[in-house]
Protein: TetR/AcrR family transcriptional regulator
Amino acid sequence: MTESRAVGTKGMPREEREAQLVVAGTEEFGRAGYAGASMVEIARRVGVTKPLLYQYFGSKDGLYLACLHRAGSRLTEGVATTMAEGGEPDQMPLKVLSAIFTTFDHDRYAWRLLRDATVPATGDIAAAAADYRRRLDAFALLGATQLMTSRGLADPVDIEAIAQVWTGVVDSLISWWIDRPDEDAAAMTARCARIMGGLFGW
Amino acid sequence: MTESRAVGTKGMPREEREAQLVVAGTEEFGRAGYAGASMVEIARRVGVTKPLLYQYFGSKDGLYLACLHRAGSRLTEGVATTMAEGGEPDQMPLKVLSAIFTTFDHDRYAWRLLRDATVPATGDIAAAAADYRRRLDAFALLGATQLMTSRGLADPVDIEAIAQVWTGVVDSLISWWIDRPDEDAAAMTARCARIMGGLFGW
DNA sequence: ATGCGGTAACTTACCCTAGGGTCACTTAAC
DNA sequence: GTTAAGTGACCCTAGGGTAAGTTACCGCAT
Structure:
């Protein structure tokens, strides 16, 4: 903890402090949601006061957007890379999960920012989050289509539903993981492999 | 809508008005979360003002608890009844889904109250919600255990994870359903049957 | 080496509004 | 005329947002 420094201490360069604040913000927004999170609490976590937070990010929305863009871009890039590698449709879900777990091992709340229901219904945040969700949903839809056509189930609305359920599965796996900090990405991936094997009879 | 009545109109009996307010509250809390929902907005939906809401429910927490208890008891009772009927482990998930869809066809937001991350971390609401979740999780755990032991997968931690994923699946199905008001409970159940058939190769 | 400005990091103390919560009152119905 | 349904107008606090100042560091000229 940066702590008990005298007033006016220079502290650390802006870039580094911003990174700290984005990490703290991601955790707090992820935990309590946009509406439930408090700016002073986020500042306090880093050992700094609110005005600095506002100087760097302008507003609560500004901070949220910074957190959201970091989470969203890392997520979409990671998933895009994994999907681009291709492979058996049956194997894709596990590969994608593995990529997500590895990327967010030390940042487990990030995923939740894209699916926070408490952000204002209109505005920059809603638009940005919807955009990231749209991109991820497109991947999910692609994966679901490949998986289902390989099994002769082709109703497009069913496939939409499957894609959404898939994101819900990721959601709940991450929530479960958040509550078990000792389980690392590799263990989590292995667990999912085992579970899917058992459930789908592979 | 009860609308444009003159001031001081007797209106309707308390019981009926309370029921309306609980319905409106459930929708608003479900949509925006505890932290994001506004009491005046909930009153406005019913065509009434805030003081009446407070006279009947005492506080925001009081209203939330009323909504939560209605949702939670209906849910746990419905699931308990369905689980008590017994049947093939493979068939239970669909039976439970069917019960949930039927019970909440006209009250689709109710499910979300049990899983709202924006309620204060301590206090009556958190305790009550945790209790309902605990009961539902126990059913999920039971179902997951039966399903998995029938397939020779017995790691208890894996089963915990499966149970949690199951609740996440319900969550995302309901979210998907909320966005498609024309799909009724029967259609939703049929869709799930089709999807599970395709995915699990039944 | 020292003093001295400029700048960047950071704070204290404040403003302002949204929204939770209350009071005193009005009117319809029996 | 008593009671229950309902209201307009208010209070108060939490929390988003800001203004003005304080201190440390760095580069530089002497």
Summary: Chain A has nine helices and no strands. Chain A touches chain B through 36 residues (CB under 8 Å). Residues 5, 7-14, 17, 48-49, 51-52, 55 of chain A lie near DNA strand C (CB under 10 Å from a C1'). Chain A has a mean pLDDT of 92.
